[in-house]
Specification:
This protein is globular. With about 150 residues, the protein is of the alpha/beta class. It has a five-stranded parallel sheet, with helices on both faces. Helices cover about 35% and strands about 20% of the residues. The relative contact order is 0.22. It contains five helices and five strands.
């Protein structure tokens, strides 16, 4: 499917949404998507707009970059750009759960606050801890270093 994402209820299975600014999409993000696609029937990588962040590319350009970074065989994974609350996207597009990767206790504390808000809006969150070798990597660090990231197959 294209970067516009799937239509609601297209497979009848459990659809998960993995939101983030993805500026840039890192090996840690790719790992979370890979594990999420093994847990859920469909995964939408939701390239979101965060007013607190100022990415170098707009959400549509970042969504195209994420799509390019995903292995072609991951047919249950789509990418969509979105302005608005993640819970609103989930409710409008039939997604049952939000997936969030956490690298450390600071991430977990911040994510728990967001998860509580999303739960109050009707969408639960599942946390996937970072693989130890990827836990120190952040989009900010990758962007600052200007590192070209290898694609995983």
């Amino acid at each position: 499917m294209g970067i516009d994402g799937p239509s609601a209820g297209s497979s009848g299975g459990v659809r998960a949404v993995y939101p983030g600014s993805f500026d840039p999409f890192t090996p840690g993000h790719l790992d979370v998507v890979d594990r999420a696609r093994r847990l859920f029937d469909e995964v939408v990588v939701l390239v979101a707009v965060n007013s607190a962040k100022h990415p170098g590319l707009d959400e549509h350009q970042r969504a195209a970059a994420v799509r390019t970074g995903l292995p072609a065989g991951w047919t249950s994974v789509t990418v969509a750009a979105w302005r608005g609350l993640t819970a609103d996207y989930c409710l409008r597009h039939g997604a049952a759960v939000i997936v969030r990767g956490v690298r450390n206790t600071s991430d977990l504390q911040a994510e728990c606050r967001l998860a509580a808000m999303n739960e109050s809006l009707g969408v639960p969150t599942v946390f996937l801890p970072a693989q130890p070798e990827l836990a120190a990597m952040s989009s900010t660090a990758v962007r600052t270093l200007g590192t070209s990231l290898p694609r995983s197959g």
